[in-house]
Amino acid sequence: MNNHVKISHDSSVESVKKPTARSRVTNRKQTFLPDVDGRTREARRYRDVYAGLVAHLGGENEITDAERHLAKRAASLVVWCEVEEGKLAAENGDFDIGPYVTGVNALRRILADLGLERRARDVTPTLEQYAAERYGRSEGAR
């Protein structure tokens, strides 16, 4: 087995795998598991949505594994919902509202767990902005 055993200061034993023993998905070298064509429009859309979610959460190096997993599931549901919405727009009769509503509700819960609920924006001006507005001076002038 390619595992190293690491003993921490509290005498517990942890198993740490070398990067070469982990999957390409875990190492972030590949988006999907093998046998998935990453060139499809759905795969490209998935990567775009996932990148947007990760950026919102602070970037790839700032999010936890749990947040990464939730962002992946959210991106999958966004793409699935968009495909289903395309069926509705095409009016070809293939749209099933039950699974769609279930998917939307699951997506809403994941996004809420990720902290994507509405946030108040700080609109308080800086001292320089206040002075410029109040006294008609530019921010750089003294």
What labels describe this entry?
single chain; 142 residues; mainly alpha; 49% helix; 7% strand
Summarize model confidence as the mean pLDDT.
79
Series of secondary-structure elements, N-terminal to C-terminal: EEHHHH
Low-pLDDT runs? none
Strand order of the largest sheet: 1-2
SS class: mainly alpha
Overall geometry: extended
Give the N-terminus to C-terminus distance in angstroms. 68 Å
Which value, in Å, is the CA radius of gyration?
23 Å
Largest sheet: 2 strands, antiparallel
Number of helices: 4
Helical percentage: 40-55%
Number of strands: 2
Proportion of beta-strand residues: 5-15%
Question: Summed up, what is this model?
Answer:
The chain is mainly α and 142 residues long. It has helices spanning 41-56, 65-90, 97-114, 127-135, and strands at 3-7, 13-17.
Can you walk me through this structure?
The chain has 142 residues and is mainly alpha-helical. Helix content is 49%, strand content 7%. A two-stranded antiparallel sheet has the order 1-2. A hairpin with a 5-residue loop joins strand 1 (3-7) and strand 2 (13-17). Helix 1 crosses helix 2 (65-90) and helix 2 packs antiparallel against helix 3. The longest helix is centred in the middle third of the chain and has 26 residues, at 65-90. It starts with a strand and ends in a 7-residue tail after the last helix.
